[in-house]
Amino acid sequence: MRGPLLLLLLSQLLLVSACDRQEPADGPAVRVDQAMGGQPDPGFARAYAPRDFRFPQDHGAHPEYATEWWYLTGNLHTASGRRFGYQLTLFRLGLRPGEAVQDSDWRTNQIYMGHLAISDIAAQRHHSAERFARAAAGLAGARVAPFEVWLGPWSLRGSANLFPLTVSAQQDDIGLSLHVQSSDKPMVLQGERGLSRKSATPGNASYYYSYTRLPTNGEVRIGGTVYSVQGDSWMDREWSSSALDSDQAGWDWFALQLDDGRELMYYRLRDRQGRAHPYSRGSLVAKDGSVQALLPDQVILTPLHDWQADDGARYPVEWRLQVPDYGLDLEVQALLDDQLMAHSVRYWEGAVDVTGSQRGQGYLELSGYAPTP
Length: 373
What we know:
Layout: H1 10-13, H2 32-35, E1 67-77, E2 83-94, E3 110-120, E4 125-134, E5 140-143, E6 148-151, E7 154-157, E8 165-171, E9 174-180, E10 188-189, E11 195-197, E12 205-222, E13 225-240, E14 248-258, E15 263-271, E16 281-285, E17 291-294, E18 300-308, E19 314-323, E20 328-334, E21 340-342, E22 346-356, E23 360-367
Antiparallel strand pairs: 1-2, 1-13, 2-3, 3-4, 5-6, 6-7, 7-8, 8-9, 9-12, 10-12, 11-12, 12-13, 14-15, 14-23, 15-16, 16-17, 18-19, 19-20, 20-22, 21-22, 22-23
């Protein structure tokens, strides 16, 4: 359940000018349950059943669906050990079903939005930015061969087979210029052969695949200082026309890379009383790439420490995560408590360390905690 579906923002995005913007039209940030609570145009396709994935086509856009994203996070370090976390997400939001309209240089039924973040652990500082552009006049878009998704000066570029992937994003006092390589780990089809069901409601699901450990090197810029870095990234791809059910408020999402060569993904959907929803799901990827599904009765999640934002929202930034069936008893702790994405939709997303029965690193996303505007 990776990243927020920003359906409530469509009314704001219709006001975006012909040029790309660094911020949306004026308006308060919305909660994720509000953003995901509406129903899209009934003409959009829905994810009802497993499908045969087709590559490289499925690396590109799916305009028959309402929303999708290309999501990269990673933990990077310099040769001297200075650590950084990063996030670059490019979202496609469909105003109406179908390919971008071609009868005008400016007319479009597709909007792109991006989130960029760098966590400077040594400085205890989280930097983030947001962009919007319509998919017209070359401002934003996606293509398959060669692979490219772009939003103004932010882009992901690769070959028809995706990797190696070039990540480029510069915004004011921060920037990324990274090379993301393929690894021995195969792509993971999350859920039921790539169908990730979010509730019992038919069609309330997404198509979802991941690359869970991607060697990465390049440069991170903060202000006038450029750092040469290396480390590992995690890439998620997801598209759907679904929304949270009325009893769901948000989720806690873990993407962990363990030092023993395994990766763990788990999202705990929460109901409006804060309880785990029965459609919470995850996967454990073995060193050889084999995948074991994780169900709610196999995973024990215990929040250990909260961080409070300026708006009073409390985010659980330290957890105990246990999977007894696989001998895992982990403590997941934010490298920096304040890694809040305070933009059109408020959510917390940041780099974490893993200790306990295994050591490692990863990323944590917390949504649906912000108060109602």
